[in-house]
Write a structure and sequence with these properties.
The chain is mainly beta. The protein has a single domain, classed as Hcp1-like (Pnp Oxidase, Chain A), CATH 2.30.110.20. 7% of the residues lie in helices and 56% in strands. It is built from one helix and eight strands. Strands 1, 2, 3, 4, 5, 6, 7 and 8 form an eight-stranded antiparallel beta sheet that branches. A hairpin with a 6-residue loop joins β3 and β4. It is extended and about 70 Å long.
Length: 147
């Protein structure tokens, strides 16, 4: 049995749902980032005395997910961010990020484990402009797992 060639995923919208909260819809996924910093390691070879210079796995950084959407006036993300700023442990929530096509069918799903909004910002605006006000949120997670 042969499988077809994998197709690149395209998404028309991004839906985030956390624990018992209503879904939030976003128009842009700026990125899902996971990083391990390289650590330099120097040692002397026991036989020859030559210096061996290698790079090893170093400090891990928590994964982040950055999304953008038009401000909807609910203030939900700012309220959640305020819980984080206050150090409330209940601010960590587990949820899903769903990449949907134009028909609303999921194209890919990611599980966001113990996520919290580490950064919330409202975009650049000019008085008298007819542009949509954008809200950008960065979720910091313990783990991001493709489902």
């Amino acid at each position: 049995m042969t499988q077809g060639t994998p197709q690149a995923i395209s998404a028309a919208r991004f839906v985030v749902s956390f624990d018992q909260t209503a879904p939030s819809y976003f128009s842009e996924l700026s990125g899902i980032t996971s990083e391990v910093e390289p650590a330099e390691y120097l040692a002397a070879d026991a036989r020859t005395g030559a210096i061996v210079h290698t790079k090893q796995f170093g400090k891990t950084k928590p994964p982040t997910v950055t999304l953008k959407r038009g401000v909807d006036g609910t203030g939900y993300l700012f309220a959640w961010h305020a819980m984080v700023r206050a150090g409330n442990p209940a601010a960590r929530m587990t949820g899903t990020l769903e990449l949907q096509n134009a028909s609303g069918r999921p194209q890919a799903t990611y599980r966001l484990i113990n996520a919290w909004p580490s950064k919330v910002e409202v975009g650049n605006l000019k008085a008298g402009s007819s542009e949509i006000v954008l809200e950008t949120v960065t979720f910091t997670c313990e783990e991001v797992i493709p489902v």
